[in-house]
Design brief:
Elements lengths: L5 H17 L14 H11 L5 E2 H8 L3 H13 L3 E5 L7 E5 L1 H22 L4 H22 L1 E5 L4 H17 L20 E8 L2 E12 L2 E9 L8 H15 L4 E6 L4 H9 L3 E3 L10 E6 L9
Parallel strand pairs: 7-8
Antiparallel strand pairs: 1-3, 2-3, 4-5, 5-6, 6-7, 8-10, 9-10
Helix pairs in contact: 2-5
Length: 304
Amino acid sequence: MSPVSTQHVTAFRRFNRYFTRRIGVLDDHYLGQDRPLGEARLLFEIAGHRGGVSLRELRGVLGLDAGYLSRMAKALEAQGMVRTSVHPQDSRRRVIELTPAGRTEVREQNRRADAVASGLLGGLTAAQREQLTDAMGTAQRLLQLAGITIERLDGHAPDARACLDAYAADIDARFPEGFDRSDLVHPDELSGNAGAFFVAYKEGRPAGCGALRRLAPGVGEIRHVWVHPDARRLGLARRLLAALEREAAERHFTVVRLDTHSALTEAQAMYRACGYTEIPAYSDHVYGGHWFEKRLAQAGRART
């Protein structure tokens, strides 16, 4: 990753200050209602989950401190906006849901928010609104990508196994012949000196993965590059691929190889765009339809 310039940081902060002022984020009576933005956002998030949502899940989605979230939840419960209960399958978890009064307030909140948005957009022409909408979509996509972290895990880690389970289910539905889970790389091949496994986290939840194992002296093999449907079209697959390539370079591999199924045309296009060259089959992998490799010019250099 290249260093972030002062110019980019200044522009980002300037936009944040302008936008938060225009929509009234700093007002203790957000949207003219008798509560600050934090409580209003919490009500909105709870409303998006039918039957309630666990406080643990809300912490991950909103990125809130557990104590702060608990205090807001208690305040809303005292006001009759929400009610909490014990999770039916796990007595250690608490579930929070809206009361009828809470649902009424959220409906009013949405009405007022729509009015604010309409007021802002009303000063633009139709073409300018389209331009702004496209720009906001781009900004949201890039900010989602920026917020995703990629961590190296042991191949036996629960999140690693969960990602591979999701990967197997996904491609089983996409491959015409289905997918046999026995083809998954064994955890021992993705741990320690044998290999590595990376998991991407989006708002605290696993959103993608990729594996690297030693194929031959100086040669690594990339397997199981996968992105959750909710995190696709963000460029995450390329970030995972770059992390795997850096890991391969640190292990002094001079080349990495991979194969992909004939049905995965988007994967083939991505590998070619990332500098991979199609080569003859290097294995008799039953799901292989195209084989690729990439030379690592900076093998052994430290991870940036």
